[in-house]
Amino acid sequence: MSPTESLHTDSAFDHDVVIVGGGPAGCAAGVLTARYDLDTVIFDRGRSSIQRCAHLENYLGFPAGIDVETLYGLMHDHAEAAGCEIVSDLVDSLERPDDGRGFVVSVQEGTQVTARRVIAATRYDGEYMRGLDDDAAMFETHEHDGEEHEHFDKGYAESDGTTPVDGLFIASPYGETGYQASMAAGHGTRVGITVVEAVRRGRGYPEPVTNYYDWMRREAELDGEWSDRSRWREYFDDRLGDQHELDEEQLGRLREREIDRRLATYLTEDEVDRRRERGHKRLLEHLDDDIVLEAAREIEAEKPIGGE
């Protein structure tokens, strides 16, 4: 896709990204891709390995631990708020269409869909990917009790999730990623960024400026030279260097689009306060109403008489 084109879903496919699995890895990846305006759907039948946990004691941010049902609800709410569609269905198979572009995703109950890219974020056996494995590198054979058994190769993907299959990424918590839920979420985030950067390359961003981050800053940091758009142009050109094949028109459009994206990440103090309040209220939606009411009564009872 040319860098002169605006960001939009590739109309040749139903979705930009299909994610198989709605646990910590899949939802973390989906938040990143959806926030980059990629049409993202997560297929989740609720079989995430995290659901076998009685109570999560070590997921950062929950000092007393967090029950799996509440965490699952928070993860799915976050993914949907970012723009993901979550479908309760099981992916049966992934296949290449006749033209070799993208993937055909067949599901157990719903309608077959197509996607430009797929993120595998589930730990079940990987059989649904077998149709993509022309050279049999995706699976490995082990002998146990005199019988041969075939398993998905946990080292098949690179650490950033890329695989030998163009457009297929693995975010499953295998190998060095470990099996802790927080590690799965971190790996999903890494793979989500990998996908976004792959999209940026496809849209014409030369390698020095494909890197992507997703975080907000305070507008007050835009002081001095960084409040001047021309300074951002210099910064972009310094990073890009001379080793690219963009003409002046393409370079100008790409540069201004990237500057717009960067500047949009700076928030006014009023916006910071508004988002803080919105975030707290959203969390309340996932808490037990009786516990919230009990806490409110305790707060009210602790207030001094007359408001002093």
From TrEMBL:
GO molecular function, one term: oxidoreductase activity
Keywords: Flavoprotein, Oxidoreductase, Plasmid
Domain of life: Archaea
Taxonomic lineage of the native organism: Archaea, Methanobacteriati, Methanobacteriota, Stenosarchaea group, Halobacteria
Name of the protein: Thioredoxin reductase
Keyword Kinase: no
Coiled coil location: none
Flavoprotein keyword on record: yes
InterPro entries named in the record: FAD/NAD-bd_sf, Ferredoxin-NADP_redctase_2
SUPFAM superfamilies in the cross-refs: FAD/NAD(P)-binding domain (SSF51905)
